# Entry
Amino acid sequence: MPNVYRNNQLTYEYIKPIRTMRNKTQAELGKLMELDTSTVGKLERNEIQFTPFYEAKLKQAIRRLRISQHELYSIKTLIEYKKLRGYKG
# Structure
């Protein structure tokens, strides 16, 4: 299983699945990422660019939520299947 976290392959598409997997609101994830709630929402919807700064903040939240490599790989697989099926949501 590839190391998604360490290979810097995280994108904005990971934010919502990570958040919902841990039953967190955008406000709660924002606190973990040290970002404003509205910024988390804009990142989820790809309304602002997912820069290395935001990627670092997401990695910080992943560590705080104790999300495993297996969980990240599952999210990556889910994202890929959604793309194949043309799902946008």
User: Anything to note?
Assistant: The mean pLDDT is 91. The two ends are 26 Å apart (CA to CA). Helices lie at 15-21, 26-33, 37-44, 52-65, 69-84.
